[in-house]
Amino acid sequence: VLRPKAEQYILNKYNDMKQKNEVKNIWNAFEFHSAIWYSSVEILPNLEVQVVIDSEDNCFVTTGSAGYVEFGMQPPIGMKLPIKCWIHTHPFGSAYFSGTDISTVSIWDTNMQNAIVLGGYNHWGSWVQERPKELIIYRNGREERLQKWGDEEE
Fold first, then answer.
1. What is the pLDDT of residue 71?
2. Per-residue pLDDT for 153 more than 50?
3. 43, 2 in Cβ contact below 8 A?
4. By Cβ atoms counted within 10 A, which residue in 8, 18, 39, 84 is the most buried?
5. What is the pLDDT of residue 76?
6. What is the model's pTM?
7. DSSP for 1-13, written as a single string
8. In Å, what is the CA distance from 25 to each residue of 21, 28, 89, 143?
9. Is the pLDDT of residue 154 over 50?
10. How does pLDDT run across 20-61, given as a tens digit for each residue?
């Protein structure tokens, strides 16, 4: 009952923002991040949430466990590449890329333009295709640190 509610909450926020047409890249808006985080830690009992925005601005949402999320048995039917943005939460409260996250962006880097990891309200990490081996981590709108990885670490 809670998973569909959380997914619908995010989809409703996305569609509402899209209809209002006030923000160019909804996937990068604080209001949208807040809705995703709220779903992950308030609607759900601290479970990871994944959001993918495809090349046609369609939004796909799924929920996972406390430490992992994938589309699995519910593949994103109709999703068009390239992916504009992949967003997921770390409901335990830390914005960084895990080894799994690094593997994901490394595999998808040619078909994914942006990735964001949410570690709290106004705490996130941002990855862009142009800098495929680094994540800029922000807190309260300011750059907090830079996470880097390289071939010797992979």
1. 75
2. no
3. yes
4. 39
5. 80
6. 0.93
7. -HHHHHHHHHHHH
8. 10, 6, 19, 20
9. no
10. 998 889 999 999 999 999 999 999 999 999 999 999 999 999
At 116 the three-state DSSP class reads: strand
pLDDT in tens, 113-134: 999 999 999 999 999 999 999 9
C-alpha distances in Å from residue 57, one per residue of 33, 46, 74, 104: 16, 27, 19, 21
Residues 54 and 74: their CA atoms lie apart, in Å, by 16
In the block, tokens 């907090």 appear at: 144
Residue 151 in this model has a pLDDT that exceeds 70: no
149: which residues sit within 8 A by CB, 6+ positions away? Answer: 97, 102, 133, 134
Residue 139 has, within 13 A of its CA and on its CB side, a CA count of 9
Return the amino acid letter for 77: I
Listed residue (83, 100, 94, 134) closest to 118, CA to CA: 94
Strands (E), the chain: 49-53, 59-63, 85-89, 114-120, 123-128, 134-139, 142-148
